[in-house]
From TrEMBL:
<keyword id="KW-0677">Repeat</keyword>
<dbReference type="Pfam" id="PF01965">
    <property type="entry name" value="DJ-1_PfpI"/>
</dbReference>
<dbReference type="InterPro" id="IPR002818">
    <property type="entry name" value="DJ-1/PfpI"/>
</dbReference>
<dbReference type="GO" id="GO:0005737">
    <property type="term" value="C:cytoplasm"/>
</dbReference>
<protein>
    <submittedName>
        <fullName>4-methyl-5(B-hydroxyethyl)-thiazole monophosphate biosynthesis</fullName>
    </submittedName>
</protein>
<dbReference type="InterPro" id="IPR029062">
    <property type="entry name" value="Class_I_gatase-like"/>
</dbReference>
<feature type="domain" description="DJ-1/PfpI">
    <location>
        <begin position="5"/>
        <end position="170"/>
    </location>
</feature>
<dbReference type="InterPro" id="IPR050325">
    <property type="entry name" value="Prot/Nucl_acid_deglycase"/>
</dbReference>
<dbReference type="InterPro" id="IPR006287">
    <property type="entry name" value="DJ-1"/>
</dbReference>
Amino acid sequence: MTTPSVLVCLAPGTEEMEAVTVIDIMVRAGFNVTTASAEENGELTLTCSRGVKLMADVPLVKVADEEFDCIVLPGGVEGATHLGESALVVEMIRQQQCDQKWVAAICAAPALVLEKNGLYPEAHKTCHPAFIDHIAEDKKNTRRVFTEHDHKLITSQGPGTALEFAVEIVYMLAGKEKAKEVVDPMVAIPSLHYDKKFA
């Protein structure tokens, strides 16, 4: 099996816990991870929602034509707003959808990126409780992490669900054994239900 490739989109105001948790778990899984700045001027050093600075690998435009098994959209109101207003981000998500590859969005991103741009209108989604009303009534889901297999879309609620969200990405891209291999040494809390999913 080829090594899965994951793109994590970053922007000023990105929720750092969500971004770093996903990046860390992808690395632990042995995936090829690229972090890309959606800042229009190509700035790689970005100040996140709580003031933590993250450095992206590349400007997003440099990897716009590359193929990724999953594109991840972290939240943070400012960060998700920025991603949702980026024509390049939106075009890459549309292409990902067209290619039937995975997209994963957490916190405010399902509302401020996907819903705002009419992406995945038929898919059920969860998001941060403060933004759940952005999602159509008949498409809302309130689970901590929700996977739409038919649409290859994973959505999640916020910083506190970031670990589950990241492990779900591993599970979808590389299967149960790989996810279990990542989770076991981390001493994840049993209430996260990994023990049931990977038993």
